Amino acid sequence: MNSCIYWGETWHQRRKPVVHEFVYPTFCFCIDLAELAALSRESRLFGHNRWSVFSVYDGDYLRMLDGSVRPGSIESKLRSFLAARNVTEQVERIELVTTPRVGFPTFNPVSFYRCFGPGDVLRATVAEVNNTFSESHLYILDEPLEGGAPAFARYRWCKEFHVSPFNDMTGEYRFAFAVSRDELDVRVNIVKDGEAVFFSRMTGSRQPFTSKMLMKTLARYPLTAHLAFPRIVRQAVTLRYEKGLRVYTKPIAASEMTIRRASPSYLQRTAKDIGFSFLRGIRRGELTVVFPDGEEHTFGARTSGRQANIRVRNYDFFVKSLFAGDVGFGESYVDGHWDSDDLTQLLMLFIENEPFISDKNLLSARIGRVVNRLIHLSRQNSKRGSSANIRKHYDLSNELFSRFLDSTMSYSCAVFSEPNEALEAAQRRKVQQMIAYANLQPDDHVLEIGCGWGGLALQAAQTVGCRVTGITLSKEQLEWATARVKEAGLSDRVEVRLCDYRDLQGSFDKIVSIEMLEAVGHEFLGTFFAACDRLLRPNGLVALQVITMPDQIYDRYRLSCDWIQKYIFPGGICPSLTAMTQAMTKHSQFVVQELESIGIHYARTLAEWRERFLSQYPALRAHGFDDRFRRMWLYYLCYCEAGFATRKLNTLQLTLTRTGNGALPACPGYSV
């Protein structure tokens, strides 16, 4: 008789991103499928397709896609799968290594089929993996790796099936099965980027398949089979709440070897139907929604504009979008619930169709907006709040920003003069324009509010010869900018301070601020202009570069919270031109002297950053920026690029002065 019982244990060890380990006692049956009927006849304690203390039912294995019982015996069903891989003709005997039913059905995480060819040589091993979402997947391993210990048959296979919520779908499995049948030794490890991050092993000593040994097995492992699921839950609680591991939601099973798939829940189906009802409103362009099984739905018309697609990976995409609108749409992208072949084009399509697919009257989305608005209100730009908000973004890492910004470390809209111009040249042109708008002179003492990594301060000191005091709330920026100033030998002309603009004392000939006003907040716009008015000497100028929102939608925008405000720039708000002029009129003596729109240049700037970010991501990953961060920043960059490309967002360069400023440049050929 080939069939036997194995007594042993199951061991798991996780090494990254946290260390976690457990061992449980276990048993399993190794059943020669040709001996199933005889085993059932010979012992009252074991039944094949009938109730007994221990039992194996054909219907528990290799089920249909919808979970129903696939007709046929276990062996015939398995051979049909092997035939598709041209393996079956070389298989003479099959052994099933599994945990049987003990009295009634239990959760069985994995079963193995050992397929032997002529001479009882192991021809292939099949792993039938079950997850807790009522799904099953087959890994048919018939191409063993060469080399290694001869006592093991080794295989490798890319991960295709979601099992643990604490592992994403990246990496590959490394399987090892002991060739000897005297001892059970099965090892399954997960390798990512060449490093093993998860280990599992099931071992056991061989026992004869007899009624006496079945009774001993029951006495030794009375509850083991029924404890499999509770133990999974126990370990999940430990990993999530004690060790803080991130949870990955289950994607829609896409592999053809996932032989049993979970159907979407009622909520997911309802959210999908509601989502599709909105998408039917698309009038400009064409959107195609694609599911893993090849199902496609098309909305809009190809002849009416741009084309874009959404490849759905998880039905929770529809649920998040239903309950949190555009914020939920972005969140579900970051969570990996969907992808697109061209994310920027997709977001542009949605911007262009905003008049036709608004969810503002949908109750579930309104609730989500209220929640997100409350989160935004908790991040107001008081002195304490501003410091926290700035550091949350700009103190992520100088390594991050240096990887995708140009050598000037300019994190604002560039100004391009020709299609093939390098980003660095376009950034230097932008800075030179701001120098011109401020009319900087060699004798000036210039204040830069929000000096970043020191690009403008250095260029102004080098090209004009003026003194510059730059202020920032980011410790990372302060450290980097100070080092650059010292390296450039400009410590006598450039000073960088960690300071809030509201706390600054003194007076300055000129004030420059590039894309800092977005971090001020609507309620503090007046405070900002009052501070500038207090700090600016008579006949001085203020040069601003600022991202703006259209006046017509500004009030609705400032009373809500979008995805960027929630995840990228907490407390941030892009003012409208009217909001700025009203604030400066009420709280200062400033008037607008000059204004230029450069917003369309931002679309290209962001596209350049996106390409650099993606090309540098492998290096960034080594610094702890995981795939979720990659998806978040990709969405951020594409989101903003789409906003500028469609002209929904703008960037303005402004010069502010006071009335009666006699120091303004005169018109050539005219004198008073």
Q: Identify the CATH class of the largest domain.
A: Alpha Beta
Distance separating the two termini: 115 Å
How much beta, percentage-wise?
25-35%
The CATH homology group name of the largest domain: Vaccinia Virus protein VP39
Taking pLDDT < 50 over at least 5 consecutive residues as the criterion, the unreliable ranges are: none
Domain count: the total is: 3
Strand order of the largest sheet: 10-11-12-13-1-2-5-7-8-9-14
Radius of gyration: 33 Å
Instruction: Name the overall outline.
Output: elongated
CATH topology of the largest domain: Rossmann fold
Question: Helical content, roughly?
Answer: 25-40%
Question: What does the average pLDDT come to?
Answer: 93
Secondary-structure blueprint:
Elements: E1 4-14, E2 20-32, H1 36-42, E3 46-48, E4 54-56, H2 74-84, E5 93-98, E6 101-102, E7 110-116, E8 122-130, E9 136-141, E10 152-158, E11 172-178, E12 183-192, E13 195-208, H3 211-220, H4 228-242, E14 258-260, H5 266-279, E15 286-290, E16 296-300, E17 307-312, H6 316-334, E18 338-339, H7 343-352, H8 363-377, H9 383-394, H10 398-404, H11 423-438, E19 445-449, H12 455-463, E20 467-472, H13 475-488, E21 494-498, E22 508-514, H14 525-535, E23 536-548, H15 551-558, H16 563-567, H17 577-587, E24 590-597, H18 599-621, H19 627-645, E25 650-658
Parallel strand pairs: 3-4, 15-17, 19-20, 19-22, 20-21, 22-23
Antiparallel strand pairs: 1-2, 1-13, 2-5, 4-6, 5-7, 7-8, 8-9, 9-14, 10-11, 11-12, 12-13, 15-16, 17-18, 23-25, 24-25
Helix pairs in contact: 5-6, 6-8, 6-19, 7-19, 10-18, 11-12, 14-17, 18-19
